[in-house]
Amino acid sequence: MASKSLLSFALIFTLSLFHFCQAGGVIPRRHGLTIIKDNVKNQYFTTFIVGSPPVTFTLLLDLGNLYSWIVMPTITNPPPSAPSLAAPPNAPPMVVAAVLAAMPSLVRAAPTTPVAPMPRLLGVIAFTRPLKGISANTKGVLTLGNVNIALHSVISKNFRLANKFALCLPTTDTILYKGFEGALYFGGGPYYMSKESRHDFSKSLVTTPLVVNPKSTAPISSEGDKSVEYFLNVKAIEVGGTPLKIDSSLLTINKNGVGGTKLSTLDPYTVLHRNIYKALVELFTAKAKAMNIPRVAPVAPFGACYDSRYMANTTSGPRVPTTDFVLDGRNARWRIYGANLMVKFFDIKYRNVLCLGFVDGGLKTTTSIVIGGKQMEDNIIEIDLESFRVGFTSAPVSLGLSCSQFQATLPTF
After folding, report:
1. Which CATH number applies to 204-402?
2. CATH 2.40.70 holds for 4-201
3. How far apart are the first and last CA of the chain?
4. Could you give the CA distance from residue 152 to residue 182 in angstroms, rounded to a whole number?
5. Which Pfam families match (predicted)?
């Protein structure tokens, strides 16, 4: 575990957030941003426009970081006149600027624009070198962890909104294909599929309590820190209605912070402890065989792949055995359909192959189940820090709907 003292090697920046109010100074009840996906890295981002002339900051979304991270060039001789923040046409006028803590005057709002300044927060760490392992399209990381300096917490405090946010991750590479972005909501629902729809998906969320991990699993933490990630209590796993036979102790978090289940937007696919993975693949393969779906040679990084020619197409993806995470709460289960279970390849030699989108994490995993991005896509995942619960719905996938349709209903400021 890295020490917080390592942060002394980074430049500490402040996070200045400004909200451009509607006419009459009325603050909207909800805030929203678009989510874009890079299919090469299988990562999810949101974008802010900063400065005049405008500079785009594309930040990786992270559910489990203590801080936000931004890569910027070193500022040696800042100009005497303060630059301005300009919102792009038709974009949510929520902008983020990273400025030196010693020079807060470098940030101001665009002229003639009514603003409600938010307190500056010592929460963004800036580096002058690109961060390894993240897409070349990004300038850093935006934390959505359970910390006071996370964007949802700042918005909640300063605009008196409920401290909750919801993700609807897109499946399409929105760097290449515009118009298929997902949505990131702040302050709670309603969540409508389209502007004409009357169905509020916030009313049909299945909820389960969040669980506190007594030990931090973040890359940077100190002894005694609790985890800022979002854990939930999976009590059992079922494939096609049949429970897995696994050691139940793997599903709970022990005193050392090992075990349990968490959500991650950084892991592209769900990562399982090896004993859970083997049991799931064995049962899934048996259920698939009963549906006349043969297993084929694996394609890395997956260990279980199948012949897609024997899978019928449905509104919820290829027809394969469903997988359920049985959770704490009355009738609380997260059902994963074929669209979120099976991974296809663009290489023509694998045109008839679909792989089970779970990865073997080995025997020494810190967390037994890490639910990754693929399994969360085209679902609404709401983190409610008021009631300390997580809500979700598989309804969009089961109805053949996508998060790009939710993106069209983001509030206009």
Report:
1. 2.40.70.10
2. yes
3. 42
4. 17
5. TAXi_C (PF14541)
